[in-house]
Every structure is written in C-alpha cells, then in structure tokens.
Amino acid sequence: MNDAYRHWTQTSAAYRAYAEASEKCAEAFATTTPKPDVNEWRHPGTGERRLYINNLLELSGLEYNQYKSGNISSAILDGDYISNTKATEVRDWLRYAKVWLDEEDTLHLKAGAWEPRAMDSDDLLNRVRQCLRAHGITNQ
Fold first, then answer.
1. Distances (CA, A) of 83 to 2, 59, 77
2. In what order do the strands lie in the sheet with 98-101?
3. How far apart are CA 97 and CA 92, in angstroms?
C-alpha cells in the first residue's frame, strides 16, 4: 500500500463513510442469511477434518408448502414461484446430498447422478459458500 493511499484511508471522510456502510451491510447480510448447521467429523485413521453442512434445504432458498400427504402444494425459489415438480426435484435432491468443507476451505458436494432443473450443483455450492462466509465459518 502506498503512502498516498494510506493517508487517504486514514483522513478521508468519504472513506470512513464507505467503511461504516460496508460494515453495516455485512452485519445486515449475516442476520438475514440462515445460519449453517455444521457438524465436525475427523477421519479416525488419517485425522482429516471435515465440516458437514446439515441444513441444505434451508440454505438453498427453497420455500414450500405441502399437503398432508407430503406432496408440495406451492413453492418459491429466490422470490419466484416454481412448479411443484421442480420444487420436489430440488427437495429430494437436497435430502440425499452431502456438502462438506475440508481443511483447505474447499467445498465438496456428493449428490446423485442427476441434478434438478431449478438448481444445479454450482448454484447450491455458491449459496452455501455465501452463508458460511456471512457467519465467519470460512473466508473462501
């Protein structure tokens, strides 16, 4: 960092206002983002540590209502209504998917051979990564 930039960041009222606003935005995002339910696991032989994320359905952004039978009656993904069929695909895919964070802060996904039409694996990992970052679990 050069001296002129350091001087500007220490004395500029505009920079202080930006820093305060940025901090408030980060706090607001952390309070509105669902907190990941994390379970730590260590491999008994190698000592490898994994943090498994257990509440994928909550972190996915899928909201749905269901009948007593368990079938979905209406669903919203990211504020947009989606078909019940697509919502069922996402719900069932997430039910059996596993996401974990390894010691190098890399997210891994183990899921079925198919992906639902409304959400792919990259989308899910990005959503999980945002929640982990917002709650200080990873810097990635």
1. 54, 19, 10
2. 38-42, 49-53, 98-101, 107-110
3. 9
DSSP class of residue 9 equals H
Annotated domain spans of the chain: 1-32, 35-134
> Other CB atoms closer than 10 Å to residue 134's CB: what's the count?
19
DSSP H helices in the chain: 3-11, 13-32, 56-59, 84-96, 121-134
Distance CA 105, CA 115 (A): 24
* Side chain identity, residue 29: F
What is the Cα–Cα distance from 132 to 25, expressed in whole angstroms? 16
pLDDT in tens, the chain (140 residues): 577 767 666 677 777 777 777 666 655 554 567 888 889 999 999 999 999 999 999 988 899 999 999 999 999 988 899 999 999 999 999 988 999 999 998 999 998 878 888 888 898 998 898 888 888 887 65
pLDDT confidence of residue 78: 84
Q: Determine contact, residues 59/131, Cβ cutoff 8 Å.
A: yes
The strand pairing partners of 82, in sequence order, are 75
